[in-house]
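Let us begin with a simple case.
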Amino acid sequence: MTTPYQHQSQAPVPPQAPQGPPQGPPQTAPQAAPQMPPQAPHHHAPQAYQQPVPSGPPSQSYAGMGPYTSPIPVRRTHLGNALASEWTKIKSVRSTIWTLGVMVALVLGIGLLVSATTNDADYRTLPTTLPGFFGTLLGQLCIVTLGVLVITSEYGTGMIRTTLTASPQRSRVLTAKALVFFALSFTTTTVSLALVAYASMGMHSGPEVTEPTSDQILGATVGAGLYVSLLGLLSLAVGAILRHSAGAITTMLGVVLLPAILPAFLMMSDSLRDLGKKMLEYSSPQSLASLFRIDEGLNSGWPQLSALAVITAAAMIAAYALLEKRDV
């Protein structure tokens, strides 16, 4: 006979499912992360991305790039470039407009005023080109002032450093300044004197008037224009030597005015009388009077013009030498 306890122990055991191979990918143990090479600092590109730097001229070819050609044309500079630069500077500053404007106003205004207030009888022995003489006496001071300012204004503002940096050939800079200034002053002065001369000849053309000769017209226009322009070029040379506006203008005023004042005192002495006469002959007022043929006892004025040209050339040579020797 079986007991309940025996019956429970003999109960059948349910069959277990057979254990086959595990489903899904095999589980593997985690592996350590691979070691990465140390990164370079951000301001350095990796070695693989660095491009070769060209070491030759810009047009040289190098790996990965074709020949380089600058879009800006490169050519050698010449005197024409310096002339264009100086013309741009001299026409763009107010001092040029004011000084030339005052000069033209003096020559034309005084000349036409003298011509309008005189009659035909006043020109029996004097040429009708005489009215231009009075305006030129004052107008030459404007050209002297402008000649100084053409170069000393750059020294005063410090722009001479920029000019000589852009054009290291200093003699070329001074040559361009001299040519541009001389051409401008000669053209302006000669045209103004010609207008006064022909206006006066038109106002006084009666039978009592002595018609001026071609030499008198040439001296009163081209000759006087050359003299005033050379005086301005001498001022430019003095400005390049002194490099100071006030000092150069004062010096040139002495050159223009003292030879006309000192002879009156020198001729008081017998030993200095010849010196006083020669100084008076080559003074600026006397030279202009000779060019205008005011008195028959005067020469043609061309000897005074030649002497001024020699003095101006000597001053320009000194200016060239000092400009190359001195620092700016």
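The second case is a distinct protein. As before, the sequence precedes its structure tokens.
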Amino acid sequence: MSQTLLPPGWVEKLCDPYAVIGISVFADDRQIFKRYHTLAKLLHPDRHAKNCNPDQKLATAIFSHLINPAYQQLKHRQKRLIAIAMLRSDARVLEQKPLSSQSAIAQEIMKMSTPEAELFYEEAIACYAEAQYKSLDQFYQVTQQITILNLVYLRLHKPDLFLPQKAVPIIPEEEVNPVELTLTDVKPVLTNYSQRHYQRAIEYVRLGKWTIAVQELRDAIKLEPNNSDYYALLGLVHLKQKFMGMARVYICQALKLNPKNSLALKYAPELKIQLGENTNPKSMAKAMSIAALLSRFTQRKGSQVKC
């Protein structure tokens, strides 16, 4: 496959392997492999060999000349450290520029506290990744936005955070006690894929593995976005990490979808959520802010990439 099938400059400009794959700079081996496997299903040449899709050649070129090299780099931890070092060098260049000259996403994230920036970064990466390969016409711009997000995020952290050889979660895990979830707190799990994610999340919550539980719940919400149980458990996860604002957002959303959700009702008093607050537009302002910001940052020629 000739590299000329890619638009000029793509290989040189899309040099952030994390952005090409569509993952955060803290992704571990499991997350990297899972994302690569997903992209292989979408874009692998074998999948498109007998397909008359006009994007067939572009999809194959992207997979061969961008995704494969990025995965080869990220699957080795030492090479990941080299990639981080290169991105950090680019982040220092970005830091020297006036804030007013940077992108809207850079200006917004720099205004946030560190915990808020971490949560925003994690949510934004997930949103961009979902949209990144849905349309190859928007792939280049979305990937560039992920690169900018990575650079801005790296500005917020000291270099020694990336020295450990083992994977580092985006939200550092502290010593935790297992969470007791009774059968009255969580509903029986059936057999569809979203509920399998939910069941795994319950087990991770019981073990105090917050980061993995968040990912499983996000996957469940993508498949079943109106299930109050998923939002309630996600709210509990943020509560246990002491991210009270985000916990309120998800508990309120759970109550908005189902005012009788037992898990949301159990923790609503601890979060000082008043009865009926979930129907107040102000109580959901923070939840909507992330979606609104991401919509603005993914605009392209009058169209939007929706998360």
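The radius of gyration is 20 Å. The chain has a mean pLDDT of 75.
Keep these points in mind for the review questions at the end of the chapter.
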